[in-house]
Amino acid sequence: MRSWSDAALGAVVLYLCWAAQAMAVEAGLRPAEEYGPLRGPAQARGVIVFSHGKTHLADPYLGLPPYLSRLHKAGWDVWRLVRPYAEDNEETSTNHLIDAGRTLRAQGYAQVAAIGQSMGGWISIRAAMERPEVFDAVLATAPAAFGTWATSTGKISGTNWRDNLNVVNFLADMKAGPRVMVFFFDKDDFDPGGRGEGATKALAARAGMYAVVDRPEGLVGHGASRTRAFDGLFGACIQAFLEAPARPGAFSCPEQSAEMRAQRFDLPGDLHVAGAAPGAPEALSRLPGQWYGFYPNGREVLVTVEETRADGATLVYAWSGLADEKGGWTRVTAQWDGGTLRSANAKRVLSYRPTADGRVAAHWERVDGSQPMDATLERLE
Q1: Cβ-proximal residues to 174 (8 Å cutoff; 6+ apart), any chain
Q2: Listed residues 217, 250, 283: the one ending a domain
Q3: How far, in Å, CA of 298 to CA of 215, rounded?
Q4: pLDDT tens-digit series, residues 257-293
Q5: Residue span of the structural domain in which 325 resides
Q6: How far apart are the first and last CA of the chain?
Q7: Does the residue 258 lie in any domain?
Q8: Which one, of 239, 254, 147, lies nearest residue 192 by Cα?
Q9: Do 45 and 109 share a structural domain?
Q10: pTM of this prediction?
């Protein structure tokens, strides 16, 4: 049996390996090689400098947010700003970003955009505030520089995370110049609240073009912008914002209906919806059709009830991907049990209960009852 000291020593070794890897990273620009060769200043529409959050310091080459792939396909070159762990403080990292912007502008790119998440979004805003002539556009998602996540408790520690409200002051002090787009998300542990209203007021007072998206429905948590759902909802709007002719004032992202969101799901080619079978309970007979919603983690779900029987139904359960993962679908047979459709396999349990207001209460959990998630599904016409 391993002793406590052995286990502790192993943990220390793992930490030192992580720290050594993180500290060995050198600051500077790195091309997003997963997108292929760069087009260069003469052919690219513009260039993006992406700055990651602090959680990526040990491996800054982890996958990029899906919406950046969309921008690359639209003609933008994409570079990463690599920040060494030992030097990653607000002042130094902001200066690294300014230097990177100057370097790319000197190469002849028509537009230089600073884009970042969390700490990366924070330094993108601050860099544009300090040197507005360097950047044509800034996009920040969940900008934050303060607060430490305690993995032991699953909560943010300390109180300095409230200082993330200061991003509003940066926006207020930003001179006319770059267009600015900022996203804030519901249930972001690093968000002290009130930043959406403050950012809108600050940006409206300057002469530049701006957009503030404050707590959009269905996207939750500090890392919401790294999901495929975020790209589906806002990727096209981000591209339009970056490429629209410059003008002062607010830029709005069009709302997407549930029907529009549902079009993004991968579904089987033989998907069909039949009427209710004779003898099916009244509540069950109202379920054939498509139902859309999302779980608290931002994962979208589309349930198509294809056929009903007296004791259950056949349905297709489809889900969106999160971060770098892809979504998928599965066709299952569900049993009608006390007013609820239930389907279980070796890994998870799905349940769907019609509600009095014409919607469906959906529930997902692991077969052992862990990691439960609830969603309210709306019928699609």
Answers
A1: 125, 128, 129, 132, 180, 202, 206, 208
A2: 250
A3: 12
A4: 777 777 778 899 999 998 778 888 999 999 999 998 8
A5: 264-380
A6: 61
A7: no
A8: 147
A9: yes
A10: 0.75
